[in-house]
Design a protein that fits this description.
Structural class: alpha/beta
Shape: globular
Largest sheet: 11 strands, mixed
Strand order of the largest sheet: 1-8-2-3-7-4-6-5-9-10-11
Order of helices and strands: EHEEHEHHEHEHEHEEEHEEHEHEHEHE
Bound molecules: threonylcarbamoyladenylate, magnesium ion
Helix content: 25-40%
Number of strands: 16
């Protein structure tokens, strides 16, 4: 797998135009790039990741106005999209919009009549998309089921030998995937996947906007989630993961002292633990915990002696929603 520097973007772009896969950095996590207008190139993404074919991909663009070329035009919705992209793009907000038929091959959308579009806040990746001249699909650049990559080394670990290359970059600043917002009905938008952009942040700029946060628990039995990705277990290392609140952490570790435990928790808590326990400090705030969660899970995944991974659970406030959502999916149990 090649690692392209910023001055080699033209080479990375050429590989992409030749239908090869090149991973790209974003502010959230690294994406696995392929040109979005080619069935074969997109099919490679599913094959390499081992991704179920009914899970649609996000299309990444570099010029905000391009969304209007792909979304079916409707005055109210167009106005809302314009407001959202003015405030939040480039940034960690994916907009799900009804797609103009025939725009992208059907494996991009998994047969849905909508498409998720995002403009990532990363200069190198914006230049890459510009240089290719075609939008890029970009699911997270990990093997399906594993934690999303927030560093080049994570991409290399999962995909070396399977893809053409990766665009070099610093680690991702945010660390969890974008907020997925369905704006099909502009009177009533829905957060299909929580992310860095919260309901409160949306309503701060658009006070009139009706925003629903759709949780998996809102689904009737057998009902399909609107965002197909939500039904899959995710982000999981090979060992069992248990989420435990700060208050219960010390007693939980005590009660499970017969197992070799790896602890992912805030830095203070890690400092309090006995030296015999493996720790990976997540920092001092939920923002830092989001940045470090996937790296921490991957760190313990690589340590074979670890039998159980214990991760600090944060109270489910709106600000903590993305962290809690990803941790909930990675863990088999939550101890509040
Ligand atoms: O931050 C991110 O969004 C990263 C970076 C690389 O941009 N990408 C990412 O892609 O997380 P992926 O494929 O791992 O997750 C895409 C999510 C899935 O849950 C998928 O089901 C949902 O977005 N999605 C995509 N298109 C959709 C659509 N048309 N309707 C509903 N959900 C959609
Ligand atoms: Mg993913």
């Amino acid at each position: 797998m090649l690692e392209y520097t910023l001055s080699e973007i033209d080479k990375a772009a050429e590989a992409l135009r030749n239908k090869e896969l090149v991973a790209f950095p974003t502010e959230t996590v690294f994406g696995l790039g392929a040109i979005a207008n080619d069935y074969e190139a997109v099919a490679k993404v599913f094959a390499v990741k081992g991704r179920p074919s009914d899970n649609p991909l996000i299309v990444h663009i570099s010029r905000p106005e391009d969304i209007f070329a792909y979304a079916i035009s409707e005055p109210k919705r167009d106005e809302l999209i314009q407001q959202l992209i003015t405030h939040f793009w480039p940034g960690p907000l994916t907009l799900v919009v009804p797609i103009v038929p025939g725009t992208f091959p059907e494996n991009v959308t998994g047969g849905l009549d909508t498409v998720g579009i995002r403009l990532p806040n990363h200069r190198g990746t914006q230049k890459l998309i510009d240089e290719v001249g075609i939008p890029l699909v970009g699911p997270s650049a990990n093997l399906s089921g594993k934690p999303s990559p927030t560093r080049v080394e994570h991409v290399r670990h999962d995909l070396d030998g399977k893809i053409n290359g990766v665009l070099s970059s610093e680690p991702s600043r945010i660390g969890v995937e974008s907020t997925v917002l369905d704006v099909t009905d502009p009177e009533h938008v829905q957060i299909l996947r929580p992310g860095f952009v919260t309901k409160e942040m949306l309503q701060k700029h658009l006070p009139e906007l009706s925003v629903e946060v759709v949780g998996l628990s809102d689904l009737e039995q057998d009902e399909k989630p609107k965002s197909p990705g939500m039904k899959y277990r995710h982000y999981s290392p090979s060992q069992p993961v248990i989420a435990v609140s700060k208050e219960k952490m010390l007693s939980f570790i005590e009660e499970n002292s017969d197992k070799v435990i790896g602890v992912l928790a805030n830095t203070d808590l890690c400092d309090q633990l006995n030296d015999a326990i493996y720790t990976y400090p997540l920092g001092d705030s939920v923002k830092e915990a989001m940045q470090n969660l996937y790296t921490g899970l991957r760190f313990f995944d690589e340590l074979e002696m670890i039998e159980l991974i214990v991760v600090e659970w944060y109270p489910e406030t709106s600000e903590n929603a993305a962290y809690c959502n990803r941790l909930e999916k990675a863990s088999s149990k939550i101890i509040y």
